[in-house]
Amino acid sequence: MTIKGCLLTGVTAAWLINSKMALATDAAAPGEGMGLLTILFLAFGALIILMQIVPAFLMFGGMVSALLKRPAAKGEEASEGTR
User: Residue 39: is it exposed, middle or buried by C-beta count within 10 angstroms (0-12/13-18/19+)?
Assistant: First the structure.
């Protein structure tokens, strides 16, 4: 590769790196709050999480009640089967 080719490649790479850094620095103007779509997206995510928490609490309550339930005596198990 010639010196001119190396110089052109280096200048092009530096130009691309600097332009990408300039685009990433300050995309939004200061003082610009969240938009309506951002708020709707966050609310939708919160709704999904809340809808997943309800069955989780029900399952957790079932597990705790099963752990705390007193085991039946041997005589009670036999009488329950005949009813």
Answer: exposed
Q: Answer whether 0.85 is exceeded by the pTM.
A: no
Q: What are the DSSP E strand ranges found in the chain?
A: none
Buried b (16+ CB within 10 A) or exposed e, 51-72: eeeeeeeeeeeeeeeeeeeeee
User: pLDDT tens digits, residue range 11-61?
Assistant: 777 766 766 555 555 555 566 678 889 999 999 999 999 999 999 999 999
Domain ranges of the chain: 35-74
